[in-house]
Amino acid sequence: MAPRRETALLMLLLVLPPASAGLSGYFGTKSRYEEVNPHLVRDPLSLGPEAGGSLPASCAPLQLRAVLRHGTRYPTAGQVRRLGELHARLLRRPAGTAACPTAAALAAWPMWYEESLDGRLAPQGRRDMEQLARRMAARFPALFAARRRLALASSSKHRCLQSGAAFRRGLGPTLDFGGDEVEVEVNDSLMRFFDHCAKFVALVEENDAAMCQVNAFKEGPEMKKVLEKVASALCLPAEELNADLVQVAFLTCSYELAIKNVTSPWCSLFSEEDAKVLEYLNDLKQYWKRGYGYDINSRSSCILFQDIFQHLDKAVEESKSSKPISSPLIVQVGHAETLQPLLALMGYFKDDEPLLANNYARHTQRKFRSGRIVPYAANLVFVLYHCDHVNASQEEYQVQLLLNEKLLSFHHSNETISTYADLKDYYKDILENCHFKEECELPKVNITAVDEL
User: Fold this and answer.
1) Among 42, 46, 115, which Cα is nearest to 78's?
2) For the segment 24-64, what is each residue's pLDDT rounded down to a tens digit?
3) pLDDT at res. 321
4) End-to-end distance of the chain based on CA atoms, in angstroms?
5) Annotated catalytic residue within 70, 87, 363, 386
6) What span, in angstroms and rounded, lies between the C-alpha atoms of 45 and 131?
7) How many CA atoms lie within 13 A of 48 on its CB side?
8) Which 3-state string (H, E, C) describes the chain?
9) Is 335 tagged catalytic?
10) pTM score above 0.90
11) 201 φ, ψ to 5°?
12) Which positions ≥6 away from 43 have C-beta within 8 Å?
């Protein structure tokens, strides 16, 4: 690196707060897993303050079903292109223009991202998965014992397949799982159900009007203020920037922290208040595209929800017949877009008021914060138990639910343990009346997408 570029970068780094201070809690779906479990920064294998749980000693786990998001990944080709566009604009600043230390330092920043990285799993992502596997095995040693069968599935995306392989590697060579090497099965019908739902694809994924709240917020007063501030710091006319370029600069700050554990010079462009605005922009997109914005977002996930309960049912039946459990461990690796609709289907993280372009100020304490729900390596785990010495037969089979290794309370009881019968009863309508084929069928009459949604 040329001495002048080194000096520019050093000057900027000297005024940077340490380790993206104040910003890392607002990176949305690009958040490190450590943001939801800070104890892992000190000890990546710690089970944390909630280790132990509240089950009686007479309960033994029968089956674990885990739906994971892949580990930390590189930016997509589109994000790399937009960053390249912004970086090139800074490099083109004419010599002799007014001194602009921030722009000069960012122009000196080595642009190392390449489009070929296109969302692939980063080395940190492999560590995320290996360490998650080791913690899961430590939390449920009876299920992860040698010669227990592990069924491992993944979406067809490279980052998910590699995450699945890393999860298996994290369990180590001592677990032979019946002597067969565990293959990662590709199952897009469950892990990428959204791709197979024609109604979702046509009316949400490929319909610009469906994102009207997101687009309105991009043009709204909160984003305008952030954009003008960034333009001023870069000594650029505000009209040369847009919300997407500002967002890619913010995401670069997040990627550098997640992938390399460094504070990027790009972080210097943003205050904590700016970060809150940009997090809301990310959450708006998640809300309207994957969450509560449209019913089809969550209804399309009922195929996965029902599959989870079909396997739980089978384990209960096998237990009642004193047969060995054929699938004690089912681990599936998907995406934020797999988990977010599933959690919405189950009714989690729903605010009283929908997220809109014009109610940012009223949502500072919102439940729907994607970085807290589906960071990299996010995981939703169903654990089925068989319990002896119970007062009633329906208490014999009980369930716990963990999100990101923390117990979730059930809606019907506000408790972290439920009888399996009560849980099935609470979700009876989804289990019996949500039919993927019918839910995802495009309407035959020619009505507008907005009317249908």
Assistant:
1) 115
2) 999 999 999 999 999 999 999 999 886 556 677 889 999 99
3) 96
4) 53
5) 70
6) 6
7) 18
8) CCHHHHHHHHHHHHHCCHHHCCCHHHCHHHCCHHHCCCHHHHCCCCCCCCCCCCCCCCEEEEEEEEEEECCCECCCHHHHHHHHHHHHHHHCCCCCCCCCHHHHHHHHCCCCCCHHHCCCECHHHHHHHHHHHHHHHHHCCCCCCCCCCEEEEECCCHHHHHHHHHHHHHCCCCCCHHHCCCCEEECHHHHCHHHHCHHHHHHHHCCHHHHHHHHHHHCCHHHHHHHHHHHHHCCCCHHHCCHHHHHHHHHHHHHHHHHHCCCCHHHHHCCHHHHHHHHHHHHHHHHHHCCCCCHHHHHCCHHHHHHHHHHHHHHHHHHHCCCCCCCCEEEEEECHHHHHHHHHHCCCCCCCCCCCCCCHHHHCCCCCCHHHHCCCCCEEEEEEEEECCCCCHHHHEEEEEEECCEECCCCCCCCCCEEHHHHHHHCHHHHHHCCHHHHCCCCCCCCCHHHHC
9) no
10) yes
11) -60, -50
12) none
Tokens of 345: 């289907």
User: What whole-number distance in Å separates Cα of residue 384 and Cα of residue 418?
Assistant: 10
Q: Please report, to the nearest 10 degrees, the dihedral formed by the alpha carbons of residues 149, 155, 156, 159 taken in order.
A: -100
CA torsion through residues 140, 29, 357, 234, sign: positive
The phi, psi pair for 399, rounded to 5°, reads -135, 145
| Residues forming beta bridges with residue 66, ordered by sequence position | 331, 381
The number of beta carbons lying within 10 Å of the beta carbon of residue 302 is 22
Structure tokens, 20: 């993206």
- Give the residue among 7, 17, 427, 4 at the shortest CA–CA distance from 257: 17
Q: pLDDT tens, 427-453?
A: 999 999 999 999 999 987 655 555 556
pLDDT tens, 282-302? Answer: 999 999 999 999 999 999 999
Q: Output b/e per residue, 373-411; b: 16+ Cβ within 10 A.
A: bbbbbbbbbbbbbbbeebeeeeebbbbbbbbbbebbebe
Segment 90-118 shows an average pLDDT of 87
Rounded CA-CA distance 56/54 in Å is 7
